[in-house]
Amino acid sequence: MTVILSGSGLGTVPCRIAESASNRLAPACCEACLPAVSRQADKGANRPGVSRRGGFSLVELLLVIALISMLLTIAVPSLTRAKEMARRSVCTHNLRRLALGMESYAAKYDSCLPPDRVPYTRDGKVYKNKYGRQKPHWQWFLEEGDSAVITRANYPDGAVGEAEFQAATTMSNDYFTCPTLNSAKANDIRDGAYGFNHAYLGCGRPKEYVPDTRYQPLNWPVSVDRVHNTSRTVILADSRGAIADQQMNVREHSYTLDPPLLAASKGAAEFGPENDPDDPLQDSSIPDKWKNSPADSRHLDQANVAFMDGHIQPMSMEGLGYKVDGDGIIVKNDGYTEANHVPNELWTGTESGAP
């Protein structure tokens, strides 16, 4: 077969035709058979500097990776903060319910607040509440939700079950827990999330205990009528507990919430639990009376604080009257003077910062 290219100046050009078994004519044309436009496109694609390969270059990939990293750097802290704000909201709800529980208790018992703990009856016998719990902490008196703070039915009948129930510290009521608290004792009734302003509003520790004699609590009962301004008096808050070691691995007695200064006017002789020199977990270098259980700034460097009028407010440690060093650690306060800030002003119930 011959192809005549008119106007090309080439005259006649032979072109082979391939014939196959399946096709009568299957042309395998030479370049001369192709249209001029198609030939020019192929030639253009083969020119130097023109790539026929798609995709990103290495520089483009690195730029995209850098942009993604930058976006993550911006987004991750925002997401972390948003999650913590959600947890703080749950904590706020829990504290509000507990503050209302305190109010309900006072309405039921002649305007008196519950104690931090009741160890004995008036005649010096071991006190047992209606659930059978001996020496109950303040959480037992609020009865939030549909059950007691520790459910007796979870323990078997008999002497063994009774002993287990009396020793049990894990609360079965979520209203007493804070979702932010990342601790093995988050649900512990003694070393858990929230503390009560016991020094000024209800300290049930005995002034001096002699078995089978009259029990005299240190500062209880306390009437709501004694409080001058309920909107400026702390009743409950996120509580840290006393530190058993410098790494804060052990929380002790966080059910009590200690003010910045020792409540000397209420007969308080020391902060928190006593130091046990035989306990390897305790740091003996911390004096007993400064081994306090302050508020815990676990929510974005603030503590959720419940006031006696029922409102909840996030507050810094300095705002609550504590002295904080450059690393954010609560340290021993130098004491109360009229010239400096008033450390216990939000704690006493009298709007006086004097301890």
Plain-language structure description:
This protein is α+β, with helices and mostly antiparallel strands and 355 residues long. It folds into two domains: 2-45, no CATH class; 71-331, no CATH class. Helices cover 21% and strands 12% of the residues. The protein has four helices and 14 strands. The strands form six sheets. A four-stranded antiparallel β-sheet has the order 5-8-11-12, with helices on one face. Strands 1-2 form a two-stranded antiparallel sheet. The chain has a two-stranded antiparallel ribbon with strand order 3-4. It is globular and about 90 Å long.
What is the fold's blueprint, element by element?
Blueprint: E1 2-4, E2 12-14, E3 17-18, E4 26-27, H1 36-45, H2 58-108, H3 158-167, E5 194-196, H4 198-201, E6 203-206, E7 217-219, E8 234-238, E9 242-243, E10 251-252, E11 303-307, E12 312-315, E13 323-324, E14 330-331
Antiparallel strand pairs: 1-2, 3-4, 5-8, 6-7, 8-11, 9-10, 11-12, 13-14
Spatial order of strands in the largest sheet? 5-8-11-12
Radius of gyration (CA) equals 38 Å
Largest sheet: 4 strands, antiparallel
According to DSSP, the number of beta strands is 14
Strand content: 5-15%
Could you say how many structural domains there are in total? 2
Please report the number of helical segments.
4
- Spatial separation of the terminal alpha carbons: 116 Å
Strand/helix succession: EEEEHHHEHEEEEEEEEE
Mean pLDDT: 79
Helix content: 10-25%
Poorly predicted tracts of residues: 2-10, 16-28, 245-249
> What overall form do the CA principal axes indicate?
globular
Q: Which class best fits the helix and strand makeup?
A: alpha+beta
